[in-house]
Design brief:
Number of strands: 19
Largest sheet: 7 strands, mixed
Radius of gyration: 35 Å
Number of helices: 3
CATH architecture of the largest domain: Beta Barrel
Helix content: 10-25%
CATH topology of the largest domain: L,D-transpeptidase catalytic domain-like
Structural class: alpha+beta
Shape: globular
Order of helices and strands: HHEEEEEEEEEEEEEEEEEEHE
Distance between the termini: 75 Å
CATH class of the largest domain: Mainly Beta
Length: 327
Amino acid sequence: MSPQRRRAVIWVTGGLLFAAVISGLVLATNSAQNTPSTTSTPPVSTAQTATSTVPRTVPSTTTSIVVEYQTLPPGTHEVATVRSQFNQVQVQSEQPAGWNKSLTPVITSADPVPPRSGQDLGRVLIPSADIAVSGRRVTPTGWIFTNPGAYQPPQPLIFGVVSRQGSWTEVQLPVRPNGTTGWIKSDLLSVSTTQKQVVVSLPDRSLRVVEAGQELFAAPISVGRPSSPTPTGGFYVTDIVPSANPAGGYGPVALALNGYSEAMDTFGGENAEGAPDSLAPVLAIHGTNKPASIGRSASNGCPRLFNEDILKLATLVPAGTPVEIWP
C-alpha cells in the first residue's frame, strides 16, 4: 500500500473511531440523564472535563488600496479652462485628502515628459513679495489666479492638466519653480482634450508642431545662450499675445508659456514687451527683430522664430497646447 493511501486509510479510520467514541459518550450521557440517581457521585475534576485549547496564530490582514490609473490615448492631453463665471480661483499646493488613496480612477497622460532642467530651485519664487505678476499671487495654502489673465487681449485662464481624480484636478501652474503643480476643484473647470503638441529640440535648434503623430509645421529657432539657457521640461501655452510693436524684440506675436527663466529673476528692455509686470522673466515662444540669431544660442532663454514662422505658429497653436522642450 502506498504511503499516501496508508495516510488516507488511517485518517478515515481515525475519523470513524473518533465519531464512534463521541456517539458512545452522547448515548452514555443521555442514559445517565434518564436514569434516576440513587447514590451521590463524587464531583468530576475540572481537569477531566476542561477542553484543551491549542493556541492559534491568526494571520494579520491589511487592506491595501490599489489606485487605478487610466491613461489617455498616446499623444492626447487634457486642457482645463476656468469657467467664465469665476473671476478668480484658488489653487492649493498640497494634495487633497484622499488623493491617490481612494478607489476612484486617476486619469493621466501616457506620454513621456522631458526632463526638467531645475536650475531655478534656489532662485526667488515667482510670484512672490519680491517679484509680483499681475493676476497671480501667493496665499498661505497655494495661489489665487484671476480669470481672465493679465495679458492683452484678455483671455480665459487655462491650465495644463496633469491628472484628475474624484472632485479634484492636478494642473501645471504658471509659477516658479518651473514644473510646479497644484490642485483645483474640478467643478471650476471645463476640461477638453488636444492632440496637438509643440516639440522643441535644443540640440537641433528646431521646433515642430505635431498632431496625432503627424507633423504639421517645422521651423528653425534660436535658443538660450549659455549664460541664460532655455529651460527644459513640460510646459503649455497660457496666452497668445499680439505685440504692440511688431518690429520689436518679440516680433509680431508671442506664445506665452507657464514657465520662467531659470537663470535670471528679471527681464529688462525690449524683452519685457507684452509681459505682465514687465520685469517678470516669463518664458515665451516669439518672433524677433534679429533674424540672424535664428539657428544660434543667442536668446535670454526664449525660443525665437523668424517672424513669418511665428505668425504661422500662432494660427496653428491655441492656448492650452502642451509644449515639450527637450535637452
